[in-house]
């Protein structure tokens, strides 16, 4: 068992001592005072005096720490370290790199609880979900460790005994810019090869630096994974940096466009994991129990703050009343409250402004004629320490139509819009009527219909008879404005490497001159 990150936390006097407790954190009891940047192999403070911004604990609304944004000098330093690490890392054999990655995965496994708790404290999601996020981060590293020594090119035979071969080569220093909904997982998914400077969302700065410590502890070259904190300005410095080879971004569509524009100045490739407004199609021959469970998984994970959520739930007319009754019953039964409590299934939304935005979407839906079938209001837990937290009751909206704002825009909160349909042709047309294309799902017992429907759905990740399942072996990413490139799966190697072609002449040069 490795030592816990005692230095990273300060527990308030009422809290149990870290080492002695099975549970190190409890909501309202964690203060973070240590630096959250990481380069030169250690946590670093920002060098210059800049405005510090408060970071909140969503479960309680109290200040957790202060963000120290990085400027040009810190970004330069982190990129320099990443460049130096890349020199070492790219010379190592696949087996050597795999050994370090496996070691990192083992450390993550041993610190699972601690990482998950910090994710909860900073993000507000339930501990049950946070543990699964940490597991999928670990599995991702294990998966790419397995692939590290399998990279191979192609041999192409040419006339006269000449031949060509291709080599997969790493890119260099990559920048990762993350969203706040899966802070640790996003950092891990982006750091699968090359060296990286990662900028977390300023809303959730706490756990990416733990990944940096883990890679360092696992024996990675100093500077392989660095963290700089900050918002737009820091992100912009990273995107424009001349020594950066690629930008991998997870976040909203408007920011994704800006990232692409900035990267284009240096002709840098981008991976963009952006937003969605995904459809879930439920046909009348579905197993209703599974369809209802699928709709809940498609809408309420991580307080509805999931890019791939199937928030437009199209239900075939005959089963609509039955479906709605069951979905509402189960939504009302979701336990909301302290995200660190084992029984909680819905914690707090990430911030006060975001909670307001989501509640406003519900108000707008009502004005446009939708019926609130349940939820859609703030939730105030009975525990006094949670009263300042950002909770709401998960919401199901009925009587929705395609033109409503709640059906057109990404809400990014626990709000499901239910629509009805008659025919397969009609629902496909309506499901695809969006500028986004991240995910889609279909529930039916008819295997031919399932594959036919999926073939016509314009989305990068499609689910048949399930939803929001993302095994790391499977590529994930969007069509249309939902993004460019993929994360996870074997194909992602192509997005984080470049192809070199080598031509070998076995005869004489046949010159035209
Ligand atoms: N497709 C996916 O895999 C995926 C995963 C998670 C979240 N998302 C999407 O992310 C969005 C929610 O996350 P968010 O609110 O953090 O997104 P956001 O776009 O506001 O911010 C994302 C990141 O970009 C940074 N940033 C903002 N402006 C920038 C600029 N001008 N230059 C450089 N960096 C800048 C932010 O500091 C943050 O780190 C939703 O739309 C959601 O669908 C997508
Ligand atoms: C693992 N999930 C739930 C599919 C989340 C993917 C990342 C998008 O927000």
TrEMBL record:
The active site is at residue 273. Transmembrane segments: none annotated. InterPro entries: Ald_DH/histidinol_DH (IPR016161), Ald_DH_C (IPR016163), Ald_DH_CS_CYS (IPR016160), Ald_DH_CS_GLU (IPR029510), Ald_DH_N (IPR016162), Aldehyde_DH_dom (IPR015590). It is found in: Cytoplasm, Cytosol. One of its GO terms (cellular component) is cytosol. The keyword Calcium does not apply. GO terms for molecular function: 4-trimethylammoniobutyraldehyde dehydrogenase activity; aldehyde dehydrogenase (NAD+) activity. Keywords: Cytoplasm, NAD, Oxidoreductase. Pfam families: Aldedh. Residues 48-502 form the Aldehyde dehydrogenase domain. This is Aldehyde dehydrogenase 9 family, member A1b.
């Amino acid at each position: 068992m490795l030592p816990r990150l005692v230095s990273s936390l300060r527990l308030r006097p009422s809290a149990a001592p870290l080492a002695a407790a099975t549970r190190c954190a409890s909501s309202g009891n964690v203060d973070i005072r240590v630096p959250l940047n990481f380069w030169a192999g250690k946590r670093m403070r920002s060098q210059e005096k800049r405005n510090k911004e408060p970071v909140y604990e969503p479960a309680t609304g109290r200040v957790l720490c202060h963000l120290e944004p990085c400027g040009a000098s810190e970004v330069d330093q982190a990129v320099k370290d990443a460049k130096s690490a890349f020199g070492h890392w790219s010379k190592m054999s696949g087996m050597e790199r795999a050994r370090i990655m496996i070691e990192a995965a083992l450390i993550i496994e041993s610190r699972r609880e601690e990482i998950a708790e910090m994710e909860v404290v900073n993000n507000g999601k339930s501990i049950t979900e946070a543990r699964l996020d940490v597991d999928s981060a670990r599995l991702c590293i294990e998966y790419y460790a397995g692939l590290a020594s399998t990279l191979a090119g192609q041999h192409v035979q040419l006339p006269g005994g000449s031949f060509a071969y291709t080599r997969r080569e790493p890119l260099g220093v990559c920048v990762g810019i993350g969203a706040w909904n899966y802070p640790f997982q996003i950092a891990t998914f982006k750091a699968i090869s090359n060296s990286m400077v990662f900028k977390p969302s300023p809303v959730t700065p706490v756990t990416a630096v733990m990944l940096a410590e883990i890679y360092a502890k696992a024996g990675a070259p100093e500077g392989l994974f660095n963290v700089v904190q900050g918002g737009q300005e820091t992100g912009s410095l990273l995107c424009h940096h001349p020594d950066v080879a690629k930008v991998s971004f997870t976040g909203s569509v408007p920011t994704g466009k800006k990232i692409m524009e900035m990267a284009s100045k240096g002709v840098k490739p981008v991976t963009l994991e952006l937003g969605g407004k995904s459809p879930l199609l439920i046909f009348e021959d579905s197993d209703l129990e599974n369809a209802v469970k699928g709709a809940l998984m498609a809408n309420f994970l991580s307080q509805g703050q999931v890019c791939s959520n199937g928030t437009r739930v199209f239900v075939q007319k005959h089963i609509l009343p039955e479906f709605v009754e069951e979905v509402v019953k189960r939504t009302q039964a979701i336990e909301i409250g302290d995200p660190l409590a084992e029984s909680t299934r819905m914690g707090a939304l990430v911030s006060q402004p975001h909670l307001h935005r989501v509640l406003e979407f519900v108000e707008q839906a009502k004005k446009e004629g939708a019926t609130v079938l349940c939820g859609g209001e703030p939730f105030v837990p009975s525990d006094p320490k949670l009263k300042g937290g950002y909770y709401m009751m998960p919401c199901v909206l009925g009587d929705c139509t395609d033109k409503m704002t709640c059906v057109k825009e990404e809400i990014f909160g626990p709000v499901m819009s239910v629509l009805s349909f008659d025919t397969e042709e009609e629902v496909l047309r309506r499901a695809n009527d969006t500028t986004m294309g991240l995910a889609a799902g279909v529930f039916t017992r008819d295997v031919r219909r399932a594959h036919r429907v999926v073939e016509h759905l314009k989305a990068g990740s499609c689910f048949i008879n399930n939803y929001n399942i993302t095994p790391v072996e499977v590529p994930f990413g969007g069509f249309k404005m939902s993004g460019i490139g993929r994360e996870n799966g074997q194909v992602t190697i192509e997005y984080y490497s470049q192809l070199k072609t080598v031509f070998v002449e076995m005869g004489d040069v046949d010159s035209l001159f």
